[in-house]
Write a structure and sequence with these properties.
The protein has helices spanning about 15-25, 25-35, 45-55, 115-130, 155-165, 210-225, 265-285, 310-320, 335-340, 370-385, and strands at about 65, 70-80, 80-90, 100-105, 105-110, 140-145, 170-175, 180-185, 190-195, 200, 235-245, 250, 255-260, 290-300, 300-305, 325-330, 345, 350-355, 360-365. By secondary structure, the chain is of the alpha+beta class. The strands form four sheets. Strands 1, 2, 3, 6, 7, 8, 15, 16 and 17 form a nine-stranded mixed β-sheet that branches. It has a four-stranded antiparallel β-sheet with strand order 4-5-19-18, with no helix packed on it. The longest helix has 21 residues, at about 265-285.
Amino acid sequence: MGQKITSSSSFESCLSAFQWIDHNVDLFIEDLIRICEVPAPTFHEEKRGRFVASLFKSIGLTGRLDSVGNLIVPFCKNGSPHIVLSAHLDTVFSFNEIHVKREKGLLKAPGISDDSAGLAALVHIARALKKSFPNLPGTLTFVATVGEEGLGNLRGVKHFFSEHAKHVDGFVSLDGCDAERLVTTGPASKRSRLFLRGPGGHSWGDSGIANPIHASGDLLSKINRYHLPKKPKTVINVGIIGGGTSVNAIPTEVFMDIDMRSESEEALRKVDQFVADTLADITDRQSALSSEIQVLGQRPSGRIATDHPLVQAALAASRQMGLAAKLDVGSTDSNIPFSLGIPALTLGVGGKSGKIHTPEEWLDPADIERGIKRTALLIVELLNTLHR
């Protein structure tokens, strides 16, 4: 993918697709709601995967679920380049039921933006291209991945590229709503579960013995005071803490799930070492305590150069649609192709959203069609310009 792409040569050919997208926003919203209302917690995405497959099948596209649960839907196979358009199936929520509410023009439900919107956009773009382009050049594949969120550790996209890396020329991921956001850098991350363990006992009769929960406060205090560099941006978050059995029992164990991220692999290693050293210092000072660190997941870092033709094509397509564009950093499915040297980026679908990763997540679909049209234009431009 070395030649210049301007995103102008395909604009005229996309006018009928644009018109179809503009006239069928209600269909997009209908699909969006139906997708969101199929629960898909990480590691349990199969039901949603099969539902999204049924939407593709309704427009004449047959997909398959691979061995880890990714949905793979071929659109056309007409030589190079091979472009993949992707979104992720899973959510951070484990609800058994989800109901989308409409309030003052907003759609409200957990996961309505991240990433139900991306999945609905895949189907909508497939419909628009199928109606407007009976014979697109190149090869286009739609992919809905599992395990993008949390402890899923990008297992879906890792598996996909373990099988297809040699045959993919460009990867575009749709994640969330902000159409002006173009993710071109993926930070490195490491998720670990930290344990502190002690003998335990009765709060009165065994008072004075080492208490793992009390010791965890020391660890949390030191983490909170640790100086994190702003450049490269580096963060620590303790997202889950648990342990103990009763208010009047000295616990035998406490655990903490910690997320560490950085734009720099070296900065991440320093943070990780600080946490390990601090934990070791606590147990050294209280010999009755022991500690353990279990690695829950790691994501590689990577980036695509801002002058790369794929990035320039996305910027040009955004301009064509009247969208401002900001290059951003984020941990998404694109981390894996970034790390493999495969051209990739992650785009927002369009519209606006908020309260992401909370039960109060909302999406404002006003003007969402501009972002969808931008992505359709980008895909057509890549296929046309890079065809050989």
